[in-house]
What we know:
This protein is α/β, with parallel strands linked by helices. It folds into two domains: 4-258 and 475-484, Glycogen Phosphorylase B (Rossmann fold, 3-Layer(aba) Sandwich), CATH 3.40.50.2000; 263-470, Glycogen Phosphorylase B (Rossmann fold), CATH 3.40.50.2000. It is built from 18 helices and 18 strands. The protein starts with a helix and ends in an 11-residue tail after the last helix.
Amino acid sequence: MWTSETLSNLASEKFEGTPLIVVSNREPYVHANDNGVVDWSQPASGVTAGLDPILQACGGTWIAQGVGEADFEVADSQNKVAVPPTDPRYTLKRVRLSESDREGFYDGMSNNGLWPLCHVAYTSPIFKESDWESYKKVNRIFADAILEEIKGKPAFVFIQDYHFALLARYLKLGNPSIITAQFWHIPWPDPEVLARCPWQEEILEGLLGNDLLAFHTTYYGTNFLNSVERNTESRIDYDYRHVFKGGHRTSVRAFPMGVDFESINEQAKQKEVGNEVLRLKEEMGLADKFIGVGLDRLDYTKGVLERLNAIDRLLELNPEYKDRLVFLQLGAASRMQVDSYRDINHEINRLIERINIKYGNDGWVPVIRFSEDPGPTMRMATRMMADFYVVSSLHDGMNLVAKEFVASRHDEGGSLILSPFTGAADELREAFVVNPYATDEFTRTIDSAIKASPQEKRRRMISMRSVVRDNTIYKWAADLITAMTEFESQPIRVG
């Protein structure tokens, strides 16, 4: 099994002293000023939470946007700070963006444009030329920050996600000795959907600046290859999944991301988690209830409305669940400056209110929502409490939440209800798989997941835990590092 120690040894062997640079929009640690006292926190994000233990194991520099009000107060003259704050293992370099640049780059092009485009979730993407200009500008700002850090020397640069589709090309033009790999954490659409983007060719050419371009699933990689074939002058080797363009080769591969199984498993066993379970059950009167849990960052792609409609239908068709079933919907609001996110937040609140009025009474509320980040202890406690845990994404790159639930259940109990439109469904074959768009099917699946025998639940959970245990975040990182270090530097031609 891959561990932090074995990954560290591999990184030392493979990198041979060449620096590792990780790039993401979101930073792994945020500093804030609380009444004159600077404190830090870790954002509840799948990407940053997954990459942090990798950097702790491998060392290197993480370059990200600084967003905390005290981020630059604690950084040095080069905007660097050692992290984790309590036990420094690597360097975090923060990039400062103006508010207008951030709005156009992040709110605009990234989240109003590329996010809905790639998720195909019935929210129309919005493409504005001003947002595109900001997107290009910010990609250049990050390229300059990386090139400044490298100072003309060779380096391995690992780029994260859809915020930086142009970055690899900018880096290669600035320093051809750089080896670049990029992980696209969200789905990649088919060519017909991609055609909605007026700058699809520029985005494809930017991504082809990478030596290695990685996706969660082979399917998304194939969609990318088909998009390249449709829109660029290039040669594609579908057998080896290589793209040749301008004398440069890009390898397109699938690397399903995992979680830190052992860490999550041990956290779930902590006494404070058990105490939190008891507290929540007592305070909310859940001791004798069937407990369902959904834990999602607020987003229209997560299928929250669809799962609530299924709960509504379940209570309508199965009156035996009256006074006996409680569904907990957790997850912090996000991107509320974007209209579509404000709209989905209002819709969720209205639907929960309607369900509770329709079925609830003075002693029983069927759906309880926590709209703030509950914190790690409560998140873990709700996983352990769950009789059924719902991941109903309408479209998702992987969905690490599902894997975190499985890793938590050292008691081998609970049922995972999982959308087939997640990358995780390819691996977690023993979940109760359900189409979130099919309300009646969804309802029957929840009923089956609750009523499954303890033996059946245990069989399914043991199987899924074995998969998650064998495919951890450290294995994912090891596979990527091995692939990255197989490349030789490849300059790209302009034009």
